[in-house]
Amino acid sequence: MEASPVRPTFLNLPPEKRERIIAAALAEFADKGYEQASLNAVVAASGIAKGSLYQYFTDKQGIFLYLFEVAVGVVRRTLLTVKEETREADVFTRLEKSLLAGVDFIRRHPRLFGLYLRILYDQRTPRRQELLAAVRRFAADYFASLVRQGLSRGEIRAGVSPETAIFLLDAVFDRFLQGVAMPAFDVTLGLNQADAREVAARGRELIGLVRRGLAPPETV
Amino acid sequence: MEASPVRPTFLNLPPEKRERIIAAALAEFADKGYEQASLNAVVAASGIAKGSLYQYFTDKQGIFLYLFEVAVGVVRRTLLTVKEETREADVFTRLEKSLLAGVDFIRRHPRLFGLYLRILYDQRTPRRQELLAAVRRFAADYFASLVRQGLSRGEIRAGVSPETAIFLLDAVFDRFLQGVAMPAFDVTLGLNQADAREVAARGRELIGLVRRGLAPPETV
DNA sequence: CCATGATATGACCAGGTGGTCACATGGAAG
DNA sequence: CTTCCATGTGACCACCTGGTCATATCATGG
């Protein structure tokens, strides 16, 4: 077990103030990454004193880890909802809907996705491996369960190795979502400026290619 | 036109010393990113005085941009070689060989790939859009020319949209290479610890899936 | 009205940063 | 041996960082 990074004082705060601080910290950490994030900027943006921050949290790491906890909660709830809502469909329909749900999530919570990217790419983020393992469990479990379904129902060819299929899905999904979030990633599709209809069409097309790659010949 | 970031003094240096400095700077910038990189660390690692660094380069940006120039040169030469060597083969063979050449490049020049990742993910890198555009041109042109070949020779189905195909290739390639370079990315395939034979097998399998996705039914 | 304990505050600290500059060194030309 | 200029040097500067702490403020219960 480990000490909580957040002090009770913080949880006693009026919700409006609490959320102002969370929003300011999230913006700072997501925009600049762990090390580059400035606590002075956080206190300035949330209108509290430096000392107060240290009455709410143990230290910089504490603030960061608390943000991560909050983020994980949001992601978990979202993922469960999507899985539930597509329960009945075939694998490729589920994948397509999941992809669009991912786009929706990023549009709704761009900072949370930004925080994830930071952890992914800032090698000096504290407890990075541990945090990534947590995120990874979500994605890998999700794809693994879909691929399992696909194989057992014959929607995916028997010869396909599950690991390679998961790798392909993970690569395509992550890149698509990063393309939506960051123009620099999206060399060709213009996802960042596209409207919902266009993104949906591109997603469908992409899942179509993946489907041909994975499904038995007679079904495509 | 713009002022060169490197001063003539640097180019007059004995090559051994020049390369020591380049190596030290590359290590620092690739490991920590632009803002987090410490020039004090660079001078310590290369055994020169702080002041000397400022006789060789205009400023921190200058050092960074010079490193990028050096890196682009290496990448350009490598890419030309691969394109040349696979000239005769069909699209999917060319892709497979290109993927393995990419792996080889990363194993040979891990810091250069690290520098690329930094530019990609550190939003505060100076002139980031411009630098990424340069890298992007390489990859997009490369894939575009292969896809064009594939479509014109009938190795890729006529119905496939070139942009979507390029997106798929870009996603799969980049993720595969990042998986080789950084364990955190590679959820399922274990590329980071795999030996050359294993990586080749995984690459072949992955290109196989992509091929099924892109090629006309009768050829797979 | 006071006392008490929780909460709020910002000047302050040590340590690191990118960048500067007055001076030291070296080697070649006269 | 002297002059001269390119090159080398590290103490120093202003600025910013995460973190501390003595003190002020506030709300509540007696």
Describe this structure in words.
2 copies of one chain form a homodimer. With 220 residues, the first copy, chain A, is mainly alpha-helical. Chain A has a domain at 68-219: Orthogonal Bundle (Tetracycline Repressor, domain 2), CATH 1.10.357. In chain A, 72% of the residues lie in helices and 0% in strands. Chain A is built from 10 helices and no strands. Chain A has helices at residues 8-12, 15-32, 39-46, 50-56, 60-85, 91-108, 110-121, 128-152, 162-181, 196-214. In chain A, helix 6 (91-108) packs across helix 7 (110-121). Chain A is elongated and about 65 Å long. The model of chain A has no long low-confidence stretch (mean pLDDT 93). Chain A binds a DNA duplex (30 and 30 nucleotides) through helix 4.
Please specify the SSE layout and strand pairing.
The structure is a homodimer of 220-residue chains.
Chain A: H1 8-12, H2 15-32, H3 39-46, H4 50-56, H5 60-85, H6 91-108, H7 110-121, H8 128-152, H9 162-181, H10 196-214
Chain A binds a DNA duplex (30 and 30 nucleotides) through residues 9, 12, 38-40, 48-55, 59-60.
Figure out the total of helices of chain A. Answer: 10
Order of helices and strands of chain A: HHHHHHHHHH
The CATH H-level superfamily of the domain at 68-219 in chain A is Tetracycline Repressor, domain 2
Number of beta-strand segments of chain A: 0
Helix residue percentage of chain A: over 70%
